[in-house]
Specification:
The protein is an alpha/beta fold. The protein has 3 domains: 3-49, Up-down Bundle (Transferase, Pyrimidine Nucleoside Phosphorylase, Chain A, domain 3); 79-161 and 169-324, Pyrimidine Nucleoside Phosphorylase, Chain A, domain 2, CATH 3.40.1030; 328-418, Pyrimidine nucleoside phosphorylase-like, C-terminal domain (Aldehyde Oxidoreductase, domain 3, Alpha-Beta Complex), CATH 3.90.1170.30. The chain contains 17 helices and 13 strands. The strands form 4 sheets. A 4-stranded mixed beta sheet has the order 1-4-5-13, sandwiched between helices. The chain has a 4-stranded antiparallel beta sheet with strand order 6-9-11-7, with helices on both faces. A 3-stranded antiparallel beta sheet has the order 10-8-12. It is globular and about 65 Å long. Bound molecules: uracil. Uracil binds next to helix 9. Belongs to the thymidine/pyrimidine-nucleoside phosphorylase family.
């Protein structure tokens, strides 16, 4: 087999065989296929697509390119949740302890933020002492003991994804549904998940700009799951505006704590309860989604979800005393309140722009492994549909570096207004499985 023939075949719009896909991924892994050849093939796939057989074969070949995690020593079904990335998305911090408090097993590997989207590991590391590097035995024991652990992805999990993602990032080939689907599903399956609940975001702040594209991505990931023996449910959710009111690491932890204590933002709470309802069905803790939703809700109301959160954070070395004073926990050297200079109803609150504004305040990174300011970020006072009078507070910016007028302008530019009242946008557009 020759890689150039495989590239030409896909360039001419033909389907590749499983053997050809395996040959490519093995070659990329053992360096007999050059990066420029993989780049050409990635572009051919982006332009000509892949059918379900090809996409499943790609996922399998990617899983085989690195380590796989054996979670068989964990008793019970391991149900993972994955979000395709957004702004203000702190759902893992809320969902994981709720599911654990309801008897489900959450053995989760998470990533760091890059660009305008945040990452669960950064949020957890804003808690002093929290350790994201557990050895495999400690990880397994922790899930068996308290039902929940979240750690960083081990170095060699799905090696091919690291190479492919870096190439896609610089060759205009990120936006390909089969490539995104194989990338996400290979990591979830190699990470040991028995079932997966996906939160597929669409809108201005997400990879998928339209609901139709999000639906197609969900369909492909569900089919991969079916072909590889994993149950998958996908929520299609709106990311035209941030989730909740807080963006930035410590600020998002604060909002997660408030949600677990029953006084978080309604959009965040609802999305978390719906995801938990499905995770509890997949984990066989309940017989129906409705029972799962109610069980999750009850765990917030009776305090068991927050108790589980504290147990989990403490078990991974985190200092839980910081949650006794959330104001001190989120204190930054500089804060800036920003007031409206127009009036009307908020018609648009651009998640992408707010993610970038938060990044420029220090909350995110533009390059891998850059240091970040855990206290930097934004608290919104207004969301889409809210009325605003001139001079009213739109939000507060947080940073440990002086806040400049460019930060304020960037924040204000995320808001658009209309004279007419509008309905609050629907957060969950559909659920497919
Ligand atoms: N998230 C991933 O893990 N991979 C992609 O390709 C896109 C989003």
């Amino acid at each position: 087999m020759r890689i150039v023939e495989i590239i030409e075949k896909k360039r001419d719009g033909h389907a590749l065989s499983s053997q050809e896909i395996k040959f490519w991924i093995e070659g990329l892994t053992n360096h007999t296929v050059e990066d420029y050849q993989s780049s050409a093939l990635l572009m051919a796939i982006t332009l000509n697509g892949m059918n379900m057989e090809e996409t499943t074969a790609l996922t399998e070949a990617m899983i085989a390119s690195g380590d796989t995690i054996d979670l068989s020593l964990i008793h019970g079904l391991k149900v993972d949740k994955h979000s395709t990335g957004g702004v203000g998305d702190k759902t893992s911090l809320v969902i994981s302890p709720i599911v654990a408090a309801c008897g489900g097993k959450v053995a989760k590997m998470s990533g760091r933020g890059l660009g305008h989207t945040g990452g669960t590991l950064d949020k957890l590391e804003s808690i002093p002492g929290f350790d994201i590097n557990l050895e495999n035995d400690a990880f397994v024991n922790q899930v068996n003991d308290i039902n929940v652990a979240i750690i960083g992805q081990t170095g060699n999990l799905v090696y091919a994804d690291k190479v492919l993602y870096a190439l896609r990032d610089v060759t205009g080939t990120v936006q390909s549904i089969p490539l995104i689907a194989a990338s996400i599903m290979s990591k979830k399956i190699a990470g040991g998940a028995d079932a997966i609940v996906l939160d597929v975001k669409y809108g201005e702040g997400a990879f998928m700009k339209t609901l139709d594209d999000a639906r197609e991505l969900a369909r492909v990931m569900i089919s991969i799951g079916k072909n590889l023996g994993r149950d998958v449910t996908a929520l299609l959710t709106n990311m035209n505006q941030p989730l909740g009111f807080c963006i930035g690491n410590a600020l998002e932890v604060k909002e997660a704590v408030e949600t677990l204590c029953g006084h978080g933002p309604k959009d965040l709470e609802e999305l978390c309860l719906v995801a938990c309802g499905h995770m509890l069905v997949h984990g066989k803790q309940v017989d129906s989604y409705e029972a799962g939703y109610q069980k999750a809700k009850a765990s917030i109301e009776d305090g068991s979800a927050y108790k589980k959160f504290l147990e989990w954070i403490a078990r991974q070395g985190g200092d839980t005393s910081v949650f006794e004073d959330l104001g001190a926990f989120t204190h930054a050297a500089y804060t800036q309140q920003v007031y409206a200079d127009s009036h009307g109803f908020v018609s648009d609150l651009k998640a992408l722009e707010l993610g970038m504004a938060s990044l420029h305040l220090g909350a995110g990174r533009t390059k891998k492994d850059e240091d970040i300011d855990f206290k930097a970020g934004i608290i919104l006072n207004k969301k889409v549909g809210d009325s605003v009078s001139e001079g009213e507070l739109l939000g507060t910016l947080y940073s440990n570096e002086p806040i400049e007028s460019r930060h304020i302008e960037e924040f204000k530019l995320a808001f658009s207004y209309t004279d007419n009242a509008l309905e609050t946008p629907q957060l969950i557009a559909d659920i497919v499985s």
